[in-house]
Amino acid sequence: MPHTPSPATAVIGAGIAGLACARVLHDAGHPVVLFDKGRGPGGRMSSRRLPVAVVELGAQFFSVRDATFRRQVAAWQAAGCAAPWPEALWQVDERGWRRHHDDLERFIGSPRMSAVTRHLAEGLTLIAGTRIERLTGNAGQWWLVDQHGERHGSFARVVISAPTPQAHALVASHDGALATACEAVIQRPCWAAWALFDEPLPALPGVDDNWQAVRLAPGHGSSPLRFVSRNDRKPGRAAQGESLSLLARIDWSQARLEESPETVAEALLDAFQRALPGDLALPRPRSLGAHRWRYAQPDVFATGEAVNQDYRRSASGLALCGDGWRGPRVEDAWLSGHHLGETLAAAIGEQAGETPAG
Ligand SMILES: Cc1cc2nc3c(=O)[nH]c(=O)nc-3n(C[C@H](O)[C@H](O)[C@H](O)COP(=O)(O)OP(=O)(O)OC[C@H]3O[C@@H](n4cnc5c(N)ncnc54)[C@H](O)[C@@H]3O)c2cc1C
């Protein structure tokens, strides 16, 4: 059984929320161990390496509204792992293709989205490829049991940053209040496809050649698409071939949850072809595929009693963070994890009799 010095904190899930929480604890000098079922950190901010290109099938960019998150993004920019993108965002609606302008700041990980989560994970202990299937123990002394039946621990507290249905499975037999809170958050699915081309896309009449991404307005025909981005137009990727990420609408994805990835990818590429101005034909892709996110984004997220709190925490040492507790964006997930980390660090400091500096 792996030995972890107590009283450490376990964080299940190394997406942006779990990493933000672990980062605060680690930087305050508190031991923390992250677990993720994936091969590395990133979760819904991960990037996929295809033979000749890197594509994003999860978050396409992140926007900045909150001052604390803005400072964090500035630090990522200074470290070279984030850059503004897209700077040439287009929108398609019944009037056709138009350049979209607003005041929102948008960024992407550079040279790929996962650079941000890899940067956050630097120096942290992450046990990857480990799906936590259940928790045993009780207040102050928790063990995590993985897919091989191996126990990890003990831990004084456990943070669960997995999407709420997956968090529910872990807390249900231990904490009724946290389980009920998870049930109230609905995470919707999303199909995301990629198409990789050997030749450049045709020039689109009336559209700048350097278009980077396009949003398809809700109600634009019956298109299943909501967002398309050009991966070779992202910072640091000029050398890779032309490739598209094609994101489906949530309701369309929900209705096709059990379709094959091949069928879905064909349908999304076909929808993009139909959204092009004029009678242009796309070249035949050399590689086409799709990924299904069963829990892509909360469209009902936590409200109620704890409406001013973007995480949940119980006296038993269990806590929950992630986008479901705040909103459907990277920024929300980071803020949720960061705020929980600050609360836990302060509580651990108090228990240890530390006086806050200053
Ligand atoms: C297709 C798509 C497009 C999106 N586009 C945007 C966008 O353009 N802009 C934006 O701001 N946001 C976007 N989002 C939303 C954004 O990606 C998420 O809000 C954010 O990344 C959520 O982070 P998180 O840490 O809360 O969850 P996650 O990233 O899901 O992290 C949870 C982690 O927990 C792990 N895990 C789950 N269960 C277990 C277990 N039992 N044991 C171990 N590990 C476990 C998972 O592997 C995962 O790594 C998009 C999401 C999707 C899916």
Distance between the termini: 41 Å
Largest sheet: 7 strands, mixed
Give the SSE string: EHEEEEHEEEEHEEEEEHHEEEEHHEEEH
| Bound molecule kinds, no repeats | flavin-adenine dinucleotide
% residues in beta strands = 25-35%
Kindly give the count of domains.
2
Low-confidence stretches: 1-6
- Chain-averaged pLDDT: 93
Number of strands: 21
In short:
The chain is an alpha+beta fold. 25% of the residues lie in helices and 30% in strands. Residues 1-6 have low confidence and may be disordered.
Output the keywords:
disordered N terminus, elongated, 8 helices, 30% strand, 21 strands, 358 residues, 2 domains, six-stranded mixed sheet, Polyamine Oxidase, Chain A, domain 2, alpha+beta, 25% helix, FAD/NAD(P)-binding domain, seven-stranded mixed sheet
